[in-house]
From TrEMBL, chain A:
Protein name: Nitrogenase iron-molybdenum cofactor biosynthesis protein NifN
Family named by the database record: Belongs to the NifD/NifK/NifE/NifN family.
Gene3D superfamilies: 6.10.250.1090, Nitrogenase molybdenum iron protein domain
One Pfam family it belongs to: Oxidored_nitro
Chain spans, region Disordered: 435-459
Protein's UniProt keywords contain Oxidoreductase: yes
Secretion signal span: none
GO terms assigned for molecular function: nitrogenase activity
Keywords: Nitrogen fixation, Oxidoreductase
Pathway in which the depicted protein is active: Cofactor biosynthesis; Fe-Mo cofactor biosynthesis
Superkingdom: Bacteria
Source organism: Rhodobacter ferrooxidans
TrEMBL record, chain B:
Family stated for the protein in its record: Belongs to the NifD/NifK/NifE/NifN family.
Translocase recorded as keyword: no
A Pfam family hit: Oxidored_nitro
Domain (Nitrogenase/oxidoreductase component) ranges: 46-445
Gene Ontology molecular functions: nitrogenase activity
The protein's name in its UniProt record: Nitrogenase iron-molybdenum cofactor biosynthesis protein NifE
The keyword Coiled coil is assigned to this record: no
Pathway where it operates: Cofactor biosynthesis; Fe-Mo cofactor biosynthesis
Task of the protein: This protein may play a role in the biosynthesis of the prosthetic group of nitrogenase (FeMo cofactor).
Organism field: Rhodobacter ferrooxidans
Length: 459, 485
């Protein structure tokens, strides 16, 4: 168990954390026909939208209640009503997910209460599901905002009294650390056992980067509302990431037994998931999964020469940091510096390092330099530190704006773990250390022996 | 095979300085030291490979392979000889002979043009031209081409006549040494020859191993004048005849060259090793003693002793920290002819058990040392078939295999830790600091948590603990009826 360090200082340098409302918006984008709506000043939305666009390279239908000076003082209930009305007119969303920002939470608005009152009054809003999650910027980060949004969706849209169980149907609660490709890979694994997953939220169909036939003012895919309504009838909930535990428990209150998987990266972690799927389905693992495991075992053998003894500086949200960190230490790497964003997720203390700093990229850079790290594993903003320290930088987490295909990165499952190990090993191999005499304290060869190149021959 | 080359090879194989050769009777001596290869059961490099390996570490030379593509195209850029200067040696140069070149007899002309182009483009200190099977078979006279090129182009162009079919890698080493002696050594003079100038023959500076030893020599005021061929400049080879002593490192193959330097220039040589603590100390001791015998200041010997005492103490202190992590572990060594016995004794000193060692290329003297160190000969074995080794490792009768790259995958597939100790390795293990590096590598490899994970059962190999729920009954055509993804 790592020692959690809360740096006693006022200044945060080069933030690692992304805001909670952005995480909520990302989760909402995994619902079909959705528009996330920030309840706050319009700048909150603009920054978040640019961030999301740079990462996914898609247009992001993120909207704002555009709080002004007057509503900031007198209350923003009307702003929400007006925003919903306008959004319904312009984009006909099936789902509007509201994420509050620091502004309204500082004011102390009873958004939930006002929303309840407003929705009761506005029967004409009935065709659009409206969900609200309290996600002030000042509490937690992306992972927490995402989790609060999923909990809000379950609270609002999964009936408390579930109908009869549907054989083979399982809930798959995808954590914020999973990329669209990863969500798809996990869902495919589940389907491989003959089970039918309801994925919440499902970025694999909305932010996977596909060219659609028509322009849409809402999300391009995602979990269907009808599926969400059936989640209480599933035989089990599989939650990926410890941050999803409260959401899984909310479904447990509706009669669905929960299982939480802290990580799906690494041989043992995937083994645990496969074991659960075997037990749930009563089936043997399919041949593709058995083959993928044998291939991962072989990849471990090949990659452990680079990863064994590798000193890694890791900066990520708790679930991602735990998943990638444990996968690397399982191959003999050492996490010499670990920085994470939020202490709200208990897994933060299980990131396999002596101490885990709740800090920023400044901590990561200092730690990497002091501990003589060999590699930096964090999101794209770590690039400046990596350049300054002349270290290879593997990009993981949010945002990744300086590489293409962030949504396609798949580091889960046997195949994804294999790809991750190759990715790390190749990053090490791409920074070869050419030995020099001075590395060993040897003097250079006498100049006398060196061949002075004559002018090029004229033959 | 050309008559001259045949005679040269016969001469090379009858090496008077080689103990193994001297111990043979007349008949087997005439047969030479290379065993006939067995078709279908041979693995190892050819004479060209051996010549190239021995010479390529000369860093400011353009190594030009006169051959169709495979000889250089399939073999280049695969060894870790490090350079502190020029990078020309790493560039792959070949004449890439085509069918037309061979049929039309254009080989010599193409070779000359290639030599001219490489000199014009790269301005190397010299060009080494390697004959190969095809260019030798079609009768290209590379010696004549090299002679003409040297005269006309003003850069030394050296023929290395070791086509693959003449024999093994070991023979290629010898032919390379002979070429250096015939064409390079003695062609340049050092500005200031010193009483502490030495030759090191047979170290190829793999991953910088020469530099692990060099600081020790630096501190004693000993200069590596001639190096054959780790991090060597062409000039250093050309001046090797002015050294005072030659140390022959871990190599019987180049013993002929060392002996020729002794016969021709009066430079005494000795065989030594920089692998392991006691061998490193012994090598330094012998080196200083021989230099003093040849007129170096007598205080070299006490200074050497002081250095050894200091370094040994520091090294053992550093190694002690590994003891708790390696003690009691069983090592299987499969290294061929390596003079690694002092490594073995250091491992034993740290509480490791050497459960077996191969002696397939070892001399009788080496075998004697195995018995001496390990008590009896029950742990010695000759060749081991991969399947046999796999079985032995799978039964977990060893905790770690130390070997060359060829048996790497036998160990890995048996889920047994493996440490590379042959020439292809990526980490330097020479001298005192190399021993610490080796232990670090053993520790890191053997104690990697991955092994336990890989040896554990897969989920489908475990008896299900909790009673499995009854298999699902799914309606046919259900979306859940999903085949393997």
């Amino acid at each position: 168990m790592a020692h959690l360090v809360h740096p006693q200082r006022a200044l945060s340098t080069n933030p690692l954390k992304t805001s909670a409302p952005l995480g909520a918006a990302m989760a909402y984008l995994g619902i079909e026909g959705a528009i996330p709506l920030f309840h706050g000043a319009q700048g909150c939305t603009a920054f978040a939208m640019v961030h999301l666009v740079r990462h996914f390279r898609e247009s992001i239908p993120l909207q704002t209640t555009a709080m002004n000076e007057v509503s900031a003082i007198l209350g923003g209930g009307e702003q929400i009503e007006e925003a919903i009305e306008n959004l319904r007119k312009r984009a006909k969303p099936k789902f509007i997910g509201i994420a509050s920002t620091a502004l309204v939470e500082t004011r102390g608005e009873d958004v939930a209460g006002e929303l309840r009152e407003m929705l009761a009054r506005r029967a004409d809003f009935a065709g659009t599901a409206v969900v609200y999650a309290a996600t002030p910027d000042f509490a937690g980060g992306l992972e927490d905002g995402w989790a609060r949004a999923v909990e809000a969706i379950i609270a609002a849209l999964v009936p408390a009294q579930a109908g009869p169980k549907i054989a083979g149907q399982v809930n798959l609660l995808a954590g914020s650390h999973l990329t669209p490709a990863e969500v798809e890979a996990v869902a495919d694994m589940v389907r491989g056992f003959g089970l039918t997953p309801i994925v919440l939220p499902d970025l694999s169909t909305s932010l996977d980067g596909h060219l659609s036939d028509d322009w849409s003012g809402t999300s391009l895919g995602g979990t269907r509302l009808a599926e969400i309504a059936r989640m209480g009838q599933s035989i089990a909930t599989l939650a990926i990431g410890t941050a999803m535990r409260p959401a899984a428990e909310a479904l447990a209150n509706r009669g669905v037994p929960p299982q939480v998987f802290a990580s799906l990266t690494g041989l043992k972690a995937v083994d645990a998931f496969v074991t659960a799927l075997m037990q749930l389905s009563g089936r043997d693992a399919p041949a593709t999964i058995k083959r993928d495991r044998a291939r991962l075992a072989d990849a471990c053998l090949d990659a452990h020469f680079q990863i064994g003894g590798l000193r890694v500086a890791l900066g990520a949200d708790p679930d991602l940091g735990f998943a990638l960190g444990t996968a690397l230490t399982a191959l003999g790497a050492e996490i010499v510096t670990a920085v994470t964003t939020s202490g709200l997720n208990p897994i933060a203390a299980d990131i396999p390092a002596a101490e885990v700093i709740l800090g920023d990229l400044g901590d990561l850079e200092r730690g990497a330099a002091t501990a003589k790290a060999h590699l930096i594993l964090t999101h794209a903003h770590g690039r400046m530190a990596a350049e300054r320290l002349h270290l290879p930088h593997v990009r993981a987490g949010f945002p990744v704006f300086d590489r293409l295909g962030a949504q396609d990165q798949c580091r889960v499952g046997y195949a994804g773990t294999r790809a991750f190990y190759y990715e790390i090993a190749n990053a090490v191999l791409a920074h070869p250390h050419r030995p020099r005499p001075e590395d060993f304290g040897a003097t250079p060869v006498a100049q006398e022996f060196d061949h002075a190149s004559p002018p090029p021959s004229t033959h | 095979m050309a008559e001259a080359l045949k005679t040269q090879i016969a001469g090379l194989l009858n090496e008077p300085a080689c103990d193994t050769n001297r111990a043979k009777d007349e008949g087997s001596r005439r047969k030479g030291c290379t065993k006939q290869l067995t078709p279908g059961a041979a693995a190892g490099g050819c004479a060209f490979d051996g010549a190239k390996i021995a010479l390529q570490p000369i860093v400011d030379v353009a190594h030009l392979v006169h051959a169709p593509l495979a000889c250089e195209g399939n073999g280049w850029d695969n060894r870790g000889s490090a350079s502190s200067g020029s990078e020309i040696y790493r560039t792959g140069f070949t004449t890439d002979l085509t069918e037309l070149d061979i049929v039309m007899g254009n080989g010599e002309k193409k070779l000359y043009r290639a030599i001219r182009e490489v000199i014009a483009e790269q301005a190397p200190a010299a060009v080494f031209v390697y004959a190969t099977c095809v260019s030798a078979l079609i009768g290209d006279d590379i010696e004549a081409v090299c002679k003409a090129a040297t005269e006309r182009l003003g850069t030394p162009v050296i023929p290395i006549n070791a086509p693959g079919y003449v024999g093994s890698k070991n023979l290629g080493n010898k032919l390379a040494g002979a070429a250096l002696y015939a064409h390079v050594i003695g062609t340049m003079e050092p500005a200031e020859p010193g009483l502490c100038d030495i030759n090191i023959i047979g170290d190829f500076n793999l991953s910088g191993e020469l530099w692990q030893v060099k600081p020790l020599l630096d501190r004693l005021g000993i200069r590596i004048l001639g190096s054959i061929s780790g991090d060597a400049r062409y000039a250093q080879v050309a001046m090797a005849h002015r050294a005072r002593v030659t140390m022959l490192v871990c190599s019987k193959a180049l013993i002929g060259l060392a002996r020729q330097l002794e016969d021709g220039y009066g430079i005494p040589f000795f065989e030594g090793s920089f692998y392991g603590i006691s061998d490193t100390s012994a090598a330094l001791r012998t080196l200083c003693m021989k230099l003093v015998e040849r007129g170096a200041p007598a205080d070299l010997i006490p200074r050497c002793e002081a250095l050894i005492a200091q370094e040994e103490a520091a090294t053992w202190a550093a190694l002690a920290s590994f003891r708790p992590r390696v003690a009691g572990k069983r090592v299987l060594l499969y290294t061929g002819g390596h003079k690694s016995w002092s490594v073995v004794s250091a491992l034993q000193e740290l509480g490791m058990e050497v459960v077996g060692t191969s002696v397939r290329k070892a001399t009788e003297e080496d075998k004697g040392r195995v018995v001496e160190i390990m008590g009896d000969d029950s742990h010695m074995f000759d060749n081991m078939a991969p399947r046999e080794m796999y079985a032995l490792l799978r039964e977990a009768r060893a905790d770690v295999l130390m070997s060359g790259g060829r048996s790497q995958f036998v160990a890995l597939k048996a889920r047994v830790p493996w440490v590379d100790v042959n020439q292809e390795k990526h980490e330097p293990y020479a001298g005192y600091m190399g021993m610490i590096g080796l232990l670090r590598a053993i520790d890191r490899e053997m104690n990697n948590p991955m092994w336990a994970d890989l040896r554990g059962p897969a989920p489908w190999e475990v008896a299900v603990q909790a009673p499995a729920p009854a298999p699902l009954r799914l309606a046919s055509g259900s979306p859940a009826d999903f085949e393997d993804c």
